[in-house]
Amino acid sequence: MVTDWLLDSDPALRWQVERDLAGAAPEVWEATRARIGTEGFGARLLALQDADGQWAGGAFFPADFDFDRVETEGQPWVATTWTLNSLREWGLDPAVLRARRTVELLAAHSRWEYDNLPYWGGEVDCCINAWTVANGVWLGAEVTGVVDWLLEHRLADGGWNCDWIDGSTRSSFHSTLNALKGLLAYQTAIGGSAEITAARRSGEEYLPSRNLFRRLSTGEPVAPWVDRFSYPFRWRYSVLNAADYFRQAALLDGSAPDPRMGEAIEMIRAARQPDGTWLQGRLLPGLVWFPVDVGEGEPSKWLTLFATRVLAWWGR
């Protein structure tokens, strides 16, 4: 049974299976979730935190990283922002990092590689600023200014594009989804203003108006990556990544699924294997602390959790 297979996993994954697929009582999945800080993936990442609050000595890249290596070796995934993203997405209790004074240490010691800007003030990349908002509100940092920046940098077509600084005026699927995730995290934790709600609504309209994967101009798929699934998602867009965002947004807003997502849902369903699992796709290259999922072509517990949960939400 797929659920039993999923339950045999790290606490970071198991608690979500218990809550969302197995129907476990809150005291069961909450107890599993509490183990993230002391066992498995979560404990391993916590043990790698530097004394100054960072990971790998840097905000987005490791300290002294040679940027000429990105093209040949890929983005390294070990610095502070990527590590906080993982711990937050896995469900670590933020009190663990608050007890380590992580917010204060990062404020004092961590600077963005872009213009040496202070960590909790964000920088000029929409995706980076969205992750700063999500991680900041999770840990209790003051990130209102970064939220305002995201609102100010929404484009005329309703979404966002990290290439705005190079003059782009058309939104990106990748950037729009990541910006939406940051605003949703903020609204979930703090509540939202009319301005935040309006920005979320415009970004959410940008994606379903394109059925989550089509060009508005021609109706053709925007790129082959839309139905290529791999975990960790990192920054990369896919219809699975987008559908999981809309699932979470619907839970917060009490709304029904948008029927315009139907084709994208069928793409997710079509990738299901006869045994009920989803296979790992091509991973984004780059240095990692340690693997958290299987290699390409193998049944992925993370993808199976995400896809099964999305299809269950859609079916309801």
- Strand and helix order: HHHHHHHHHHHHHHEEH
Q: What is the overall number of helices?
A: 15
Strand order of the largest sheet: 1-2
| Helix percentage range | 40-55%
Poorly predicted regions are none
What structural class results from the helix and strand content? mainly alpha
Strand fraction: under 5%
Mean pLDDT over the residues: 96
Describe the sheet with the most strands. Answer: 2 strands, antiparallel
Using only C-alpha atoms, the radius of gyration works out to 19 Å
Which terms summarize this structure?
single chain; 316 residues; mainly alpha; two-stranded antiparallel sheet; 15 helices; 49% helix; 1% strand; globular
